[in-house]
Amino acid sequence: MNPTIDLILAHRSIRQFTQEPITASQLDQILSAAQSASSSSFLQANSIIRVTDMALRTRLAELAGHQAHVAEAAEFLMFCADYHRHGQIVPDAQTGYIEQLMIGAIDGALMAQNALLAAQSLGLGGVYIGGIRNNPAAVSEALGLPDLVIPLFGLCLGHPAQVPEQKPRLPRALVVHENHYQAELDRPLLARYDQQIEAYYQARSSNNKQQTWSSQIRGILGKEARPFMQAFLQSKGFNLK
Questions:
Q1: Is the pLDDT of residue 154 over 90?
Q2: Is residue 73 within 8 Å of residue 15, measured between CB atoms?
Q3: 185: containing domain
Q4: Residue 234: which of 109, 74, 101, 104 has the closest Cα?
């Protein structure tokens, strides 16, 4: 092990923060780390919006499902897929393709992971806010996002005011395959993991519940997931060609 791996393995989502601000030097290092992430074809097809207006923060917290930490964190960063900049450089650019959308989403996630790891290395904590996509059109309007710019997710950052228990991940044998995909699910191994997750949820210090991982996934995937998203993407110029 080394300090970098130790930091990665110690990851926890932080949703409660102290009032201590993030310094300008810390924020500069976090943003520099984000921009140092790999970029497919060097397109650099992302933008980050630092939201400092507290009224806007409150509005975004509501749109994300009334997540108070969006307004309470020391910093809130919005990660966006952005081809508007490219369109200004190349007015006849061929945009709106699924592959471009995937690049924007993947590269945005790489940037955000770099940002969070940098923050954690400075003693800070954070949590990603996918709930931003609950109301993507309203979020876009609030942030003034033009065509070919879409909000992917937010990132709360600050000084942790909690040390939550670490959530167990899937057994490696269910995730890592060798040479070929193993289509047959190891159900006994999954059953043991379900028991582990159920025990975790019952024992953790906050938001206790009785639920296995399989039942959680069944609840999520047993209904439509943001069915408005395709129409929103098309309205922003991603025609899914």
A1: yes
A2: no
A3: 172-217
A4: 101
